[in-house]
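Lab notebook, bench 4. Continuing the backlog of folding jobs that were queued last week. Each job is logged with the same field layout so the records can be merged later without manual cleanup. Today's entry covers Tr-type G domain-containing protein, a 403-residue chain. Filled in by technician R.K.

JOB TYPE: sequence-to-structure
TARGET: Tr-type G domain-containing protein
LENGTH: 403
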Amino acid sequence: MGKSSPKVPPPKGSPRVSTPKPKSSPAPSPVPTPLALSSSSIPGDEAPLPLNISITDLKKDKRDVKQCPDPRKSQIKAQIEHSINSQTDKCHINLVVIGHVDAGKSTIMGHLLYKLGHVDAKVMHKYAKESHQMGKGSFQYAWVLDEHDTERERGITVDVAVTSFTTPTKAVTLLDAPGHRDFVPNMISGAAQADYGILVLNADVGGFEAGFKVDGQTREHVVLAKSLGVEFLIVAINKMDLVDWSQQRYEEVINNITDFLDKSGFKNKVSFVPCSGFSGENLASISKTNTKLLSWYKGPSIYEKIDELPPPQHGKDIQGHFRFIVSDVYKDAISGIGVAVGGRIEGGFVSKGDKLLLQTLNEIVTVKVIKFQGNFVEWAYAGQNVDIGIQGVDSPQISLNVP
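JOB STATUS: finished
OUTPUT FIELD FOLLOWS
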């Protein structure tokens, strides 16, 4: 979408934080594909759509649409510039979690969210009980993000789960991507919105090797992440408890993957962290009783390393026309009216009341609500991952599925 002057993912899982998406049973095909919006645009399903559709501002559209100067825009722009320059807001980053299937991506992030207080203890107890009843007790923390019945039954992530949390200096939008090869397009949808990534590796003997071999997803995910603009990787070496927190195994994994990461464009742009998603060790801190890990590791936890990430290099491009990557389309999800779309703002800014061109349908829609980090806001700008409630088009007209 652009302004006139003005993962299945809607956020699934616990947060975008507080806006769970309607559940449905996702299927391997068709799969969601990231598309783009601008000062008026959304993908339509009348014809197959290419990856990352280009969009234009309403001013450039061939339709004869008269525009009246909106004094609000200069005021809103000034407020945004003041907010950015004064650093009154925490630095916002988009963080995608990638890696081979069963590396423990959803378990790590689900357990971290629980430790940070984003998941109620009663809800976590329910997940633990129900996952054990299904014979999948080790997936209890993954259920924080994997909400679909299909995902829970199969024990794999299918869609991109979108949630959010904060660190002392960062406001983080988290995108938990699937690792199964059948859902690579969904992984691309998540990585296309990300500034940084967490690459999860399985430290268990044979586990790392399975993901790193030629037909494993570790290599493909790294290459795709780099090509889609991910600037830095936190490499979480997971399941260290299964190798008794062996420093030798930790260093073996690092030595085996470092050359590949360097050649993929991440030389001097990676940080390695040992952890256990299931036990929770070194997600936010290391237990004092874990003397084996404490004896040789003195670095940051996953949470601390996220907080140390620098501001994204792309900056806050609020000067140009509004451009928006659409990754989710869903009805009545946040506004109770019309349609909601979710994704990342690539340029410019948007505010309530703006008129946007839905380019593939050539229809004008109105912004009714904007939601960022679980809160309703008056405006949002480049780099932020948001949900936008729009009025003027029905969701059946909009499709992110490519046959």
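OBSERVATION: Residues 4-36, 40-66, 399-403 have pLDDT under 50 and may be disordered.
SIGNED: R.K.
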